[in-house]
């Protein structure tokens, strides 16, 4: 069942095959830094059309990313989480400052940043989400992929990418483009799933111990083995960022609140609740150095 040899994109070490999914993709794990990669990769054009569908935001990730429902409820878990990110940004670089969000979805985080006096703009690949952000929040959002970002000038004080890097065919592009777009001393905040989380450990163990037959939890963790192409941890994201002269300032664990998921039964909800006591995502905040 073992697939082709794979090389870690962070530390260039050998990756071992771990688990295969029915769609033909497999998870590989780096022997040294622990990066997980989903291989083989899809074509760029295939991915562009995958993300640019209305139902992507309206249905498929509606459970996880239902920030819209709560966008004006200050006590909603997702809004509290966004406020935590913004509080950390204010501490490092308060307004007036220019903030770019890469992959800004429907613009809820950007709207909150704008309410905190930041001058905000965003890029997003999904047409429906771009129009929503413009019409609902009046935001300056462009339909653009990260590949299309022009980095000729250092324009921004802060760049935010929440749950983006794990989706990229080339994760280094996020660091490279951010380096080009940030002013000297600029701040980069990246949020992404953590391979060193209890949920990943349990899901991986279940798949490994059953020789991939109980693969479903891991399959979900990888966005149905389509979306999440690389699962980092705070250690190897730091190595990748250093390659582009970013210095880590701060890192913290967090959950995208799962208590709103509706298409799971009570038992699954209970399991998710227990496993989520250990946060399954992390944020690292970096500073651009010379
Ligand atoms: Zn590695």
Number of helices: 11
- Mean pLDDT, all residues: 89
* SS elements, strand count: 12
In spatial order, strands of the major sheet run 7-6-5-8-9-12-11
Distance between the termini: 46 Å
The CATH class label of the domain at 50-194 and 232-288 is Alpha Beta
Question: Strand count, sense and closure of the main sheet?
Answer: 7 strands, mixed
How much of the polypeptide forms β-strand, as a percent range? 15-25%
The distinct ligands, each listed once, are:
zinc ion
CATH topology term of the domain at 50-194 and 232-288: Rossmann fold
Note the overall shape: globular
Annotated CATH architecture of the domain at 50-194 and 232-288:
3-Layer(aba) Sandwich
Query: Structural class, judged by helices and strands?
Result: alpha/beta
> Are there runs of 5+ residues with pLDDT below 50, and where?
none
State the CATH superfamily name of the domain at 50-194 and 232-288.
Vaccinia Virus protein VP39
Task: Explain the layout of strands and helices.
Layout: E1 6-7, E2 14-20, E3 26-30, E4 36-39, H1 44-51, H2 54-60, H3 77-92, E5 98-102, H4 108-115, E6 119-124, H5 127-137, E7 141-143, E8 156-162, H6 172-181, E9 182-193, H7 198-209, H8 216-221, H9 223-226, E10 230-231, H10 234-243, E11 246-254, H11 266-275, E12 281-288
The structure holds zinc ion.
Description of the molecule:
With about 290 residues, the chain is α/β, with parallel strands linked by helices. The chain has eleven helices and twelve strands. The chain has a domain at about 50-195 and about 230-290: Rossmann fold. Helices cover about 35% and strands about 25% of the residues. Strand 1 (about 5) and strand 2 (about 15-20) form a beta hairpin. The mean pLDDT is about 90. Zinc ion (ZN) binds near residues 8, 13, 32, 35 and 236.
């Amino acid at each position: 069942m073992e697939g082709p040899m794979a090389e870690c994109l962070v530390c260039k070490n050998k990756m071992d095959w771990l688990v295969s999914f029915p769609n033909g993709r497999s998870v590989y794990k780096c022997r040294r830094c622990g990066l997980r990669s989903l291989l083989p990769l899809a074509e760029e054009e295939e991915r562009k059309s995958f993300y640019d569908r209305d139902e992507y935001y309206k249905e498929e990730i509606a459970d996880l990313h239902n920030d819209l429902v709560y966008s004006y409820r200050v006590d909603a878990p997702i809004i509290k989480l966004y406020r935590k990110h913004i509080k950390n940004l204010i501490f490092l670089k308060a307004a007036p400052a220019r903030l770019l969000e890469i992959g800004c979805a429907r613009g809820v985080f950007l709207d909150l940043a704008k309410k905190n006096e930041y001058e905000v703009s965003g890029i997003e690949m999904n047409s429906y989400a771009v129009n929503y952000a413009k019409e609902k929040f009046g935001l300056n959002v462009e339909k653009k992929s990260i590949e299309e970002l022009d980095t000729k000038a250092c324009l921004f004080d802060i760049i935010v990418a929440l749950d983006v890097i794990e989706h990229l065919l080339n994760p280094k592009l996020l660091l490279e483009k951010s380096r080009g777009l940030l002013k000297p001393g600029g701040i980069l905040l990246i949020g992404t799933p953590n391979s060193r989380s209890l949920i990943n450990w349990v899901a991986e163990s279940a798949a490994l111990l059953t020789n991939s037959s109980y693969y479903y939890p891991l399959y979900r963790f990888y966005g149905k083995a389509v979306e999440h192409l690389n699962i980092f941890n705070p250690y190897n994201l730091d190595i990748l960022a250093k390659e582009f002269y970013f210095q880590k300032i701060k890192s913290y664990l967090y959950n995208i609140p799962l208590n709103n998921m509706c298409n799971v039964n009570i038992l699954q909800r209970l399991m998710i609740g227990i496993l989520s006591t250990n946060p399954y995502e992390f944020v690292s905040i970096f500073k651009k150095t010379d």
